[in-house]
Hints:
The chain is α/β, with parallel strands linked by helices. The chain has a single domain, classed as Double Stranded RNA Binding Domain, CATH 3.30.160. Helix content is 34%, strand content 30%. The protein has six helices and five strands. A hairpin with a 4-residue loop joins strand 4 and strand 5. The longest helix is centred in the first third of the chain and has 17 residues. The radius of gyration is 21 Å and the shape is flat. The mean pLDDT is 81.
Amino acid sequence: xxxxxxxxxxxxxxxxxxxxxxxxxxxxxxxxxxxxxxxxxxxxxxxxxxxxxxxxxxxxxxxxxxxxxxxxxxxxxxxxxxxxxxxxxxxxxxxxxxxxxxxxxxxxxxxxxxxxxxxxxxxxxxxxxxxxxxxxxxxxxxxxxxxxxxxxxxxxxxxxxxxxxxxxxxxxxxxxxxxxxxxx
Length: 184
């Protein structure tokens, strides 16, 4: 009986020591890009403008989603963002300018449930600057591709799907904060 209790206790200690009881069940947050980390950024003011001819993506919605994307990592990164709510109080300003946006689908490919794959292409420029004007991160006319699926063939549908702006916001943030998809 004593052997079983000791074995049970040893197993419990092993589980606790390995962190299995406190796993967040998500992938670990990658380290901040060296330039962002060394600059001491703690807060970001997000501004978005849409200069594309089609004007599909709403700038205020994208600004809010970008701020939410930054805040989703804030526990690990210690960086918070606001979509122009406290103008002038943040350490840095992230300015995003949408230059072009288009949607295309491949009618030859049909996914389960007759879903059509869409490809949302967005060209944008983005700059993260400190209050003193120092550029911490910048992309000029960079290309983003966001997948979407729909039963509709109408090209206006993908722009109604909220996951498009949501995915775009996370892609921008991963590139900026963690230097993903590019060199740091």
